[in-house]
Amino acid sequence: MSEHPEPSAVRELILLDGGFHWFTHDFPHPLARWHHHPEIEIHLLTASSGTALIGSTATVFTPGSLFLVGANLPHNWVSVLSEGQTVPRRDIAVHIAQNFFRDLATLAPDLTELAEFIDRGRQGFVFSGATAHAGADLLRTMPATRGTERFLTLLELVSILAHAPDGECTLIDPEGGAALSDDDDMLYTAALDYMLTHLREPLRLSDLAAHLALSESSVSRLLTRATTCGFTHTLNRLRLIEACRLLRTTDSPVSEICYASGFTSLSNFNRRFREYAGVTPRTYRRSFTLAGA
């Protein structure tokens, strides 16, 4: 992987024009780092694939993935790139002031449902299917608009996301994540960074503890606080996410993907993948092939 989260979640300061702000940037880019901010973020990945790190969770992203990230929820999207590779305009996003829709709803009660949707998204949503396609189209057209037209485009965008069918809107962290201290947040981010960097290697709790200069029991407690599970489960989940990414974006045989994602036994990989995804690796790949993903 070409980039991993910074050692701590950096607070990002964003200047808002009229309560919301649209922007785009390449990858790598200074904005593409582990960070958080008090604004709501709607974020489209236009190209490349990799791992979405949001709060205490991790999932796959591919071109067209669309996310809503709640206020102060740490996040980063880590693309898998070759050395020196860049992705032009990988990210298109809009930041919305935290109380923007609540304030609007006091003036226009019909907007209350949008304010409530934003509130429900505190721990983040990921969108798929027709909802993601429609949202992506609106995000791409927003820079060509001004004033009232841009405001109405934002309303349409949030309305589309708020009315997404159940199958096209998934809460990223249903448990709400863990409230970590600043020190623990920094350590957890460093732990994720190390595990992502060394996914394909034999990795033990003692290796991670040595890297963080902590005891093994301290690292285990840290991961349990952050993710409600320990080292082995967290590592296996990151490896399974990488396997999902490879199944969706490459033609490599399942046996190669097993080892490329860090597993050492094909039977163990198949068993854990089925527990995680509910289907076999081949069925998972075929479902995306049939869907044209």
UniProtKB/TrEMBL annotation:
UniProt keywords, alphabetically: DNA-binding, Transcription, Transcription regulation
One term of GO molecular function: sequence-specific DNA binding
Pfam families linked: HTH_18
Highest taxon above the source species: Bacteria
Name recorded for this polypeptide: Helix-turn-helix transcriptional regulator
SMART domains reported for this sequence: HTH_ARAC
Start and end residues of each HTH araC/xylS-type domain: 189-287
